[in-house]
Automatic annotation (TrEMBL):
It is an enzyme of class 5 (isomerase). It comes from Hymenobacter monticola. The lineage of its organism: Bacteria, Pseudomonadati, Bacteroidota, Cytophagia, Cytophagales. It comes from the Bacteria. This is Phosphoglucosamine mutase. The keyword Isomerase applies. Keywords: Isomerase, Magnesium, Metal-binding, Phosphoprotein. Its cofactor is Mg(2+).
Length: 465
């Protein structure tokens, strides 16, 4: 597997020869490129905050990154085992020039990555990312003389600061949560959520917490992407009864999935919908944002509350940009990513938990009844593999022309609207494939729409051939 380079950073599998995966040489090169870019920014600070999830290579990668940054003359504050949103919040709190999160998020344990933040604690832009990549390719690094090496410090307590900031939010009602005496099961896939989520729950007044896969060993107990097929263990615990809710986070705690008291999946798409409904009701309305591949249910609850919904291109940095443009009160992505700007502009499972539990407590409902109160949509997720010589951009252009009579959005691939149904086609940045997502109020219709579009694509390819 070669390195995957995206807006937010560099990722790959650990181990193997140079040129295949994320090697120690790659870690040093890209850390040096990022540090060199930071030094060109108009900031008086020379501090970089770093933190990591619990994956097996994390300690090694962290030490390489810290030493490289010190070699450039930059100071490093290491949060150690932490969460992505905690690092994001620490950057501006410490007046740092930037931050690096060492996590491959939902990827399996052999993966790791450097996720790059600006001085606001937000992911760097596409333009900035291209500058970092160009610096890495040129390897034109100016390391500091021995008398000007950067300093290295640690901070093991910033998670507590993060949690205290969540508790201080006006829409988080600790007394309401405590009064409901929730009984909660937590699956943290043996990573940082194993200590972060229980610490938050205890601070919220939850006293019954069943910990499942909460030892932060980095040896993931199951595939770390919080999809239903990977969450059979927690579902079985809830099916036996005695608990009100299941909480699942990915290794770096920026995605939140919920499980109902009966073991049924709440649905990652509906994590944002539920939290947004609560926020909109509490504020008397407001605007929301999600990406083009997320459920229409967010638009429904937003418009019902008198607000406006906007769609952004896929990717957290794009969602954040659109949220700022529209002054959205909440936003995120359909993968369980909650972005609540009252706290910070980053996906944050911890604030999502606090807001959801407040919503659940005030509603007086069970999790399953709350889920049933929302519009039900189904998303069919598919992909079509293309040979490298096929021009995927042209395929998307031809699809746009075929459906020109329908409302079409082209900010990220092609999204075609059919009344309350839609199909979104977008090419992968790393593979010769087109992803086809379709949504409808029934599984069969969503699948039919997706297969209809796949058939159209095959016709276009056949004509071209």
């Amino acid at each position: 597997m070669t390195l995957i380079k995206s807006i937010s950073g560099i990722r790959g599998t650990i181990g193997g020869p140079v040129g295949q995966g994320l090697t120690p040489l790659d870690v040093v090169k890209y850390a040096a490129a990022y540090g060199s870019w930071v030094k060109t920014q108009a900031t008086a600070s020379k501090l970089i905050v770093i933190g990591r999830d619990a994956r097996l290579s994390g300690d090694m990668v962290s030490r390489l990154v810290a030493a490289t940054l010190q070699g450039l003359g930059l100071d490093v504050c290491d949060l150690g085992l932490s969460t992505t949103p905690t690092v994001e919040m620490a950057v501006p709190a410490k007046n740092a020039a930037g931050g690096i999160i060492l996590t491959a998020s939902h990827n399996p344990k052999q993966w790791n990555a450097l996720k790059l933040l600006n001085a606001k604690g937000e992911f760097i832009s596409d333009t900035e990312g291209q500058q970092v990549l160009a610096s890495a390719e040129s390897e034109d690094f100016d390391f500091a003389p021995v008398t000007k090496l950067g300093e290295y410090t640690t901070d093991d307590n910033f998670l507590t600061t993060h949690i205290e900031a969540i508790l201080a939010l006006p829409l988080v009602d600790v007394e309401a949560i405590r009064a409901r005496n929730f009984r909660v099961v937590v699956d943290a896939v043996n990573s940082s959520g194993g200590f972060a989520v229980p610490q938050l729950l205890e601070a919220l007044g939850v006293t019954t917490i069943e910990k499942l896969h909460c030892e932060p060993t980095g040896d993931f107990a199951h595939n770390p992407e919080p999809l239903p097929e990977h969450l059979r263990d927690i579902a079985k615990v809830l099916e036996r009864g005695g608990f009100d809710l299941g909480i699942v986070v990915d290794p770096d705690v920026d995605r939140l999935a919920l499980v109902s008291e009966n073991g049924e999946m709440f649905g990652e798409e509906y994590t944002l919908v539920a939290v947004a409904e609560y926020v909109l009701k509490a504020l008397g309305g407001g605007n929301t944002v999600s990406n083009l591949s997320s459920t229409r249910a967010l638009r429904d609850v937003t418009e019902k509350a008198g607000g406006s919904y906007a769609a952004a291109a896929v990717g957290e940095v794009n969602v954040v940009t659109k949220m700022k443009e529209t002054n959205a009160v909440i936003g995120g992505e359909g993968n369980g990513g909650i972005i609540y700007p009252e706290l910070h502009y980053g996906r944050d499972a911890l604030v999502g938990i606090a807001l959801f539990l407040t919503h659940l407590a005030k509603s007086g409902l069970t999790v399953s009844r709350l889920r049933n109160s929302y519009p039900s949509y189904f998303i069919s997720k598919n992909k079509i593999e293309l040979t490298p010589e096929i021009d995927t951009d042209n395929v998307l252009v031809q699809m746009q022309k075929r459906y020109a009579k329908q409302p079409v959005n082209t900010i990220d691939g092609v999204k075609i609207e059919f009344d309350k149904e839609w199909v979104h086609l977008r090419k992968s940045n790393t593979e010769p494939i087109i992803r086809i997502y379709a949504e409808s109020d029934s599984n069969s219709t969503a699948d039919y729409l997706a297969q209809k579009i796949i058939g159209d694509i095959k016709e276009i390819i056949a004509v071209k051939a």
